[in-house]
Design brief:
By secondary structure, the protein is of the alpha+beta class. The chain has one domain: Gcn5-related N-acetyltransferase (GNAT) (Aminopeptidase, 3-Layer(aba) Sandwich), CATH 3.40.630. Helices cover 33% and strands 25% of the residues. It contains 3 helices and 5 strands; from the N terminus they run βααβββαβ. The chain has a 5-stranded mixed β-sheet, with helices on both faces. Helix 3 links the parallel strand 4 and strand 5. Helix 1 crosses helix 2. 24% of the residues are buried.
C-alpha cells in the first residue's frame, strides 16, 4: 500500500489546458462520458477483444450498473478545455472503504483510487496531477482519506 502526503506539489499551472471535476451521477452527460472512457480504455488495452460497434450496448449496461452502484464509488472527469468545447481526456474513481472501529469511537473513513484511465496523446503527468488533486478534493468533501493511490503513479 502506498501512502503519500496530500496534496502533492502541483505540476499544472493556471495555464493548464486541463480541468478536473467531480462527475455528477445524476447527469446523463457525465454518465455517458464515463461509459465512453471506460469502453475506450478496454479497447486500447485489448483492441482485439472489443467489437467497435458495441458502444451503444455497453452504454446501456454501464448506465444500469451506475444506477445500482453509484453510492459505492465516486468519479472524477478531466476535460481538455483549450478548444471550442471541453473534451474528456481522463477519468478516475475512488471507492470508499469501511473503517475499522477504534476504542475512542473515531474511525476516519478511507478510500482507494480505482479505475484510472487517461486517453493516449495527452500530457499524462499534468492530467494525472489534475486528476489526483480532484480525487483528493472529492474524497475530502465526503470525509474520506485516500489511502491507496497506486493507480495514479
Amino acid at each position: 500500500m502506498t501512502v503519500r502526503p496530500f496534496p502533492r506539489p502541483p505540476l499544472a499551472t493556471a495555464l493548464s489546458p486541463y480541468s478536473a471535476r467531480a462527475a455528477d451521477p445524476a447527469a446523463a452527460h457525465d454518465v455517458a462520458t464515463l461509459a465512453l472512457l471506460r469502453w475506450w480504455s478496454v479497447c486500447v488495452a485489448d483492441p482485439g477483444r472489443v467489437d467497435p460497434h458495441s458502444l451503444p450496448a455497453f452504454h446501456r449496461d454501464f448506465v444500469a450498473w451506475w444506477r445500482s452502484d453509484a453510492d459505492n464509488r465516486l468519479a472524477v472527469l478531466v476535460d481538455e478545455v483549450g478548444g471550442p468545447a471541453a473534451v474528456p481526456v481522463a477519468m478516475g474513481w475512488i471507492v470508499p472503504m469501511a473503517a475499522l472501529p477504534r476504542p475512542d469511537g473515531h474511525a476516519p473513513r478511507s478510500a482507494r483510487v480505482d479505475g484510472v484511465y487517461v486517453v493516449p496523446g495527452v500530457v499524462v503527468p499534468v492530467v494525472l496531477d489534475e486528476l489526483h488533486r480532484a480525487l483528493v478534493r472529492l474524497a475530502q468533501q465526503h470525509d474520506l482519506v485516500i489511502v491507496d493511490d497506486r493507480r495514479l503513479s
